Predict the structure of GDP-mannose 4,6-dehydratase.
Amino acid sequence: MKRALITGITGQDGAYLAKFLIEKGYEVYGIYRRLSTPNFWRLQYLGIFDKINLISADLIDEFSLLEALKISDPDEVYHLAAQSFVGASFEQAVGTAQVTGVAVTSMLEAIRHYNPEIKFYQASSSEIYGDGHDEILNENSPFKPSSPYAAAKLYGYWITRIYREAYDIFACNGILFNHESPLRGLEFVTRKISNAVAKIALGLENRLLLGNLDAKRDWGYAPDYVEAMYMMLQHEVPDDYVIATGETHTVREFCERCFDEVGLDWQEHVKVDKRFMRPIDVNFLCGDYTRAKEKIGWEPRVKFDELVKIMVREDLNRWERWQNGEKFPWDAPNHPNETKLITRTVRS
Ligand code: NDP
Ligand code: GDR
């Protein structure tokens, strides 16, 4: 039986990947960090919490990562943990550099010392291309990061390549474009919208405050994307791959389609609020996944319209169950209104 160690198992991708690998017959280990309140809702929601071996570790403590390798003795490491919210990286730039950037080296060093035969997946990101593009992006497109998060991810990208070339470690960068799901964190724009639309449709809320509606993103479906991570590590040679849908849409279109789904007019509920604008934003992203298709046989299954449906229907279903008094693991009821939280530097 193969063993996999997943960092970031409590996040969106970690939970879906764990489910996928369990179904493939893997023994799955995941690192979690000690928090004052347990944070396993996604694993419980997918019904896999009892099938996972949890190891306490933190990315800023490299010895805990080495210990996690010793305990799990994995064939494959999927390094997904990060401070993953671009907006927060402007507020916690140094912390993001350490957690999202330098910790990739800690993990690779731990692998090099413990067992360099372990295969390594790095959760790289389309954010490394940054702002200023209007062309479809592939593995050879130039990088110009536009946030502390993106700069940290670019560091992680290069250190992964350096360990591949210098030490012959089977290390791959998955350059994943945005991917979403009903397990997406509530601060990301798609889930913020689908959750608000569900509440507005049920009369629990009336308005939705957003930032840059003109930003374009290539949005895919997270369960499709975690399969690509696994497929990269099964190929004969390690490489870097763009994972995307090849379609791009504005935040405005995402909004419009979500409100359409419940028969409402988005313009009656959505207001632009400067507090949700970033100091610099990435205005266009669209990915070309030809290499992934040709080399590892990966293609996206769920595209934009279906993604919208999946997300709005699931948030609607959850709030309806909640109104009927049902209790089940789910994030939204405990999530404060975002206007209470915002302190970030606003674009003037
Ligand atoms: P999430 O924010 O949902 O999950 C992040 C995970 O990292 C959580 O499990 C979190 O733990 C963990 N984590 C954060 N800080 C630490 C730390 N100091 N020590 C240990 N664990 C930590 O992200 P996603 O699942 O969406 O993304 C997975 C990865 O892919 C991330 O690296 C992200 O940057 C990258 N990525 C994501 C894309 C997307 O569209 N989703 C696209 C491209 C790249 P906790 O639950 O305790 O907070
Ligand atoms: P992104 O995702 O920054 O692309 O990073 P996010 O959903 O946060 O933003 C997408 C775009 O929407 C605009 N936007 C808003 N964003 C948020 N969060 N809240 C708002 O109210 C709002 N209004 C407009 C943003 O300005 C931006 O242009 C995600 C993360 O998962 C990263 O970890 C990952 O690397 C990249 O995707 C690929």
User: Anything to note?
Assistant: The longest strand covers residues 119-125. The mean pLDDT is 97.
